[in-house]
Structure formats: structure tokens, C-alpha cells
Amino acid sequence: MLTWRDALDILAVATVFYYLYVLIAESRALNLVRGLLVYLLVWFVASRMGLNSLAWLLGNAATLGVFALIVVFQPELRGALERIGRGRLQRQPLADAQLNELVRAVERLSALRYGALIAIERHTPLGEFAATGENLDARLSARLLESVFFNKTPLHDGGAILRGDRVLAAGCVFPLSEKQEKYLGTRHKAAIGLSEVSDALVIVVSEERGTLRLADGGRLSPPLQPVELRERIREGLQIATPTLAEARFRLWRPKEREG
Ligand SMILES: Nc1ncnc2c1ncn2[C@@H]1O[C@H](COP(=O)(O)OP(=O)(O)OP(=O)(O)O)[C@@H](O)[C@H]1O
């Protein structure tokens, strides 16, 4: 018979699993867990089919692997444990109106020759990179992004991270790509670098040339016009194209949107 102790036990185990999920989902470790599940599946199938050598190899590698993982992911484990108790951040997907705000901001930054680096999170959580900067968690707006990258503010150095319709953090350090691209400095290398280790779309505004480029999957686009940039992001995030009526409505009321 189910006693109150059993119920408490089940609840406690469920809570532990929930926080374990939060801990994993907030970092890049999610991809690793998927890989581990495939590993365990192959191991299980190999043992069941009597493939003794393969099962022996995988079994022994797993013992070593557990220790290696703890060492390699030690900073992430620490960061994730610190986040326990704060709960998950609420996020709404980036809608067309916010995409316009984003493009308007980078257009102005490029005209003013202010360098900028903006990562748009997709499936790979960017929490660990956000932790290297200043936590903002503010509603995305053109003026906020322009303020962040205005070159007299302490936050303009480094990259900003967008999660859904919010600016999660600014002043973040992104990993630098090892690629030897001619004429590209560290801002562009950081954009490529982050897109190599995650599926984020990373916008770079060049301070020197005022160009707009987008890094995706480890590749940097050629300089783009704001309209092209908007379309690429819209495709990348699968944002529905506004209907003609919606687009006209926006064109008629630009002042109101700025407020
Ligand atoms: N690892 C990094 N993560 C985030 N931002 C970085 C990183 N490295 C450099 N940056 C940003 O790039 C700036 C330096 O840009 P730098 O001029 O070297 O690059 P660039 O690619 O030539 O860009 P630009 O065309 O804007 O001059 C730094 O001040 C900083 O804001």
C-alpha cells in the first residue's frame, strides 16, 4: 500500500530529476547527454548480441569516461548547480516585431560605426556564455541594443546574447575561432567561434567598415544589407512572414513603434 512516506519519496526523486534536467538544459551539456544515450544504447545492444569485444571496450571506456566528463565539465556543473533554485527563465520566441527592432538597431549601429556582436540563441543553450558577461534579462528593443553597444558604455565590449524576445546578457566573452580568415579581427572570430560550438546565429557589426555579417554553423556570410540580414534571421528562426496587411500597418505607424 502507498504510504505518505512513499509519496514523499516519489516526490523527492521527481524533484531531483527535474533539477537534473534544468541543470543539463541550461548548458551545452544537453548535446553531450544525447551522445551518452546513443553510447549506452550501442553498449546495451552489443552486450545483448554477444559482441563481446565491443561490449568490453565500451564498458571499460565508460568507467574512464565518467571521470573525464566530471573533470572536463567541472565549470559547467558548478555554474549549473549555482543556478538551481532560481528556476528557468521564461521566454517567448522572437516575433517579427522584435526582429524589426533588432535589425533597426544593427542598422543604426553600422551607420554610426559602432562595433557590435549579437548572438541569437536557438536550440543550444548559451547560458554558460551569458554567465561570462552581465546578466540583463531585459525586453529586446532597438534602443536597448544601441545603448549596450554605444562605445562609451562598459558593456559595449564583448557580445550580447538574445534568448527569445529578451536580451539575456551583454559584455559576454565568446570562444574565438581557430580559422585563419584574412582581414578579420577578433570580433568576427568570436562570432564564427560561437557559431562553431553552438547553433546560434551571430550578428557582427564591424566598427571599422560598418558592415553587417551573420555567422551560422561556423561560416561567416559576406557583408549583408539590413533586408538580407532580416531574411536570413527570419529563415533561421522560422519566423512567419507578416501578411501584406500587417506590413502596411507597420509602415503607416512607424512613430508609434519607436515609443
Ligand atoms: N572573444 C570575444 N568575445 C566577445 N567579444 C570579443 C571577443 N574578442 C573580441 N571581442 C570584441 O571585439 C572587439 C575587438 O574587435 P577587433 O577590432 O579586434 O575585431 P574586428 O573583427 O576587426 O572588428 P571591427 O571590424 O569591428 O574592428 C573587442 O573590443 C571586443 O568588444
Automatic annotation (TrEMBL):
The chain crosses the membrane at residues 6-24, 31-49, 55-73. Keywords: ATP-binding, Cell membrane, Membrane, Nucleotide-binding, Nucleotidyltransferase, Transferase, Transmembrane, Transmembrane helix. It comes from Calidithermus terrae. Its EC number is 2.7.7.85. The keyword Transport does not apply. It is an enzyme of class 2 (transferase). This is Diadenylate cyclase. Gene3D superfamilies: DNA integrity scanning protein, DisA, N-terminal domain. InterPro entries: C-di-AMP_synthase (IPR014046), CdaA (IPR034701), CdaA_N (IPR045585), DisA (IPR050338), DNA_integrity_DisA_N_sf (IPR036888), DNA_integrity_scan_DisA_N (IPR003390). HAMAP family: DacA.
